[in-house]
């Protein structure tokens, strides 16, 4: 999921739909002045109040006064979060500091502050690549279980699962969802598959067997020009989401059967030239998004509509080039969660900040529409976006609604980023013929995990 963040950095939204929530301690960490981060104090003039939380009586937001600290790793999104909050809460001053996460700078700075017990912001975010580290870290995030009990029922279940620790304590909330889908090129589908109808395309990729059959048809009809996927990493996102178990169970590396099946599936794709053999995020992969003669389908989370498709295909906004369908296995890709520092002395003000962006219907819908985001709010989603996507030609809220509750958030672990990087590296070598057998591929993968992670058992 680091690559999710890298893409957004390239397109000026580093984790695209990351979000918004505040931080701890009355003063910023003094060390921040010596690190390559920017620090800004943000407030805005009062405006009309957004509606209150779905579960709480409205409060006089102008009467709430005080000051909190908030760190974020996104220089574009962080200030906008504060501006939006202060439009409703004009008398709560939010001191924001932007700490880029290049080379894990943000993560390390938060970790050091938590361990030292000083200089921690009242509220701080964590993206999907490392959210579980902070959720499980002792004394990092406060327990929100009781405070959030009346609002989590309106959230997409997987987001709650991700923010919950091993002891069933809710530690972090998200304002957004990064549900995954499959984006496809209508022109290529029409020309080589005989239809660009979403229901027909969804059926053509609904099972591994049908994906291989569709890939064969594409290859034959296009004389080898068009592959089903630009890389094996597209269906890998879906297979990962389809697992029944996470990468680490009872502190032991666990390779779910779905991933064993995926190794065979990816080998068939590569051997038959059913995928274009690009690396995800490479220049060739990005260029292929705008081309009509490279590949048909891309893994597309909610943020991927504007930042994968839209940012790479300048002709996509006409609404006629791309379609979007349900994936064969539900998955999520990316996203940001926010929590309150466990020892913050500003718990109530921090909670108002956090709650505003994760439970207020009007605020969440406004943010989602203005930032091309997807709200983690079932009521708002059920009402629809009220507008048609200029890229996909559908109401994206209504499109994702039927399957977002099926996404499994329990499989995410704090080790996933390291393990999945090792898996991708090993798969690339295997598919390139540098590793000769599946057995050797699995051995190499396990050896990488054992080298990189000393605190789990690898057999």
Please give a quick description of this structure.
It comes from Pseudobacteroides cellulosolvens ATCC 35603 = DSM 2933. By secondary structure, this protein is α+β, with helices and mostly antiparallel strands.
Please characterize this protein's 3D structure:
- This protein is an alpha+beta fold and 459 residues long.
- It folds into two domains: 14-158 and 166-176 and 342-383, D-Maltodextrin-Binding Protein, domain 2, CATH 3.40.190.10; 180-331 and 387-459, Periplasmic binding protein-like II (D-Maltodextrin-Binding Protein, domain 2, 3-Layer(aba) Sandwich).
- It is 39% helix and 11% strand.
- The chain contains 18 helices and eleven strands.
- The protein has helices spanning 2-10, 77-88, 105-116, 131-136, 157-162, 186-193, 198-204, 208-221, 233-241, 257-271, 283-290, 304-312, 347-359, 361-370, 378-383, 396-400, 416-431, 438-452, and strands at 23-24, 38-42, 66-72, 92-98, 122-127, 180-185, 248-249, 252-253, 297-301, 322-325, 336-340.
- It has a three-stranded antiparallel sheet with strand order 1-5-11.
- The longest helix has 16 residues, at 416-431.
- The chain starts with a helix and ends in a 7-residue tail after the last helix.
Strands across the major sheet, in which order? 1-5-11
**Total separate domains:** 2
Q: Helical segment tally? A: 18
- Through-space gap between termini: 25 Å
Q: Structural class, from secondary structure content?
A: alpha+beta
Spell out the helices and strands N to C.
HEEEHEHEHHEHHHHEEHHEHEEHHHHHH
Percent of residues in beta strands? 5-15%
> Remind me, CATH topology of the largest domain?
D-Maltodextrin-Binding Protein, domain 2
Low-confidence regions: 1-55
Oligomer: single chain
Q: Please identify, by name, the CATH architecture of the largest domain.
A: 3-Layer(aba) Sandwich
């Amino acid at each position: 999921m680091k690559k999710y963040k890298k893409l957004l950095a390239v397109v000026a939204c580093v984790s695209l739909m990351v979000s918004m929530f505040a931080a701890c301690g009355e003063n910023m960490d003094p060390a921040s002045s010596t690190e390559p981060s920017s620090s800004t104090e943000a407030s805005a003039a009062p405006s009309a109040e957004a509606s209150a939380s779905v579960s709480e009586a409205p409060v006089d937001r102008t009467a709430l006064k005080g000051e909190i600290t908030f760190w974020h790793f996104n220089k574009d999104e962080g200030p906008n979060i504060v501006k939006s909050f202060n439009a409703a809460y004009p008398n709560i001053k939010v001191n924001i500091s932007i700490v880029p996460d290049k080379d894990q700078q943000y993560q390390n700075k938060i970790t050091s502050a938590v361990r030292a017990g000083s200089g921690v912001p009242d509220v701080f975010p964590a993206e999907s690549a490392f959210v579980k580290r902070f959720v499980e870290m002792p004394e990092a995030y406060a327990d929100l279980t009781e405070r959030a009990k009346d609002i989590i029922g309106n959230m997409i279940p997987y987001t709650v699962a991700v923010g919950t620790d091993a002891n069933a304590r809710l530690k972090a909330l998200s304002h957004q969802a990064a549900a995954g889908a499959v984006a496809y090129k209508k022109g290529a589908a029409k020309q080589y598959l005989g239809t660009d109808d979403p229901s027909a395309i969804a059926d053509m990729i609904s099972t591994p067997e049908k994906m291989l059959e569709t890939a064969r048809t594409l290859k034959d009809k296009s004389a080898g020009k068009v592959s089903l996927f630009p890389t094996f990493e597209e269906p890998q996102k879906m297979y990962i989401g389809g697992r029944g178990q996470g990468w680490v169970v009872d502190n032991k590396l666990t390779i779910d059967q779905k991933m064993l099946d995926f190794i065979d599936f990816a080998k068939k794709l590569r051997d038959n030239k059913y995928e274009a053999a690009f690396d995800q995020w490479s220049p060739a992969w990005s260029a292929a998004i705008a081309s009509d003669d490279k590949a048909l389908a891309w893994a597309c989370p909610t943020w991927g509509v504007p930042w994968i498709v839209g940012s790479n295909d300048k002709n996509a906004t006409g609404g006629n080039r791309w379609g979007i369908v349900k994936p064969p296995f539900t998955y999520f890709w990316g996203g940001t969660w926010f929590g309150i520092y466990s020892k913050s002395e500003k718990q109530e003000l921090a909670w108002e900040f956090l709650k505003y962006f994760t439970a207020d219907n009007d605020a969440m819908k406004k943010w989602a529409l203005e930032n091309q985001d997807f709200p983690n709010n079932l009521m708002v989603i059920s009402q629809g976006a009220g507008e048609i996507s200029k890229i996909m030609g559908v109401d994206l809220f209504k499109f994702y609604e039927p399957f977002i509750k099926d996404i499994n958030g329990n499989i995410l672990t704090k080790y996933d980023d390291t393990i999945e990087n090792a898996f991708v590296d090993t798969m690339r070598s295997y598919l390139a013929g540098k590793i000769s057998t599946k057995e050797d591929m699995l051995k190499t993968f396990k050896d990488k995990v054992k080298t990189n992670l000393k605190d789990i058992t690898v057999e």
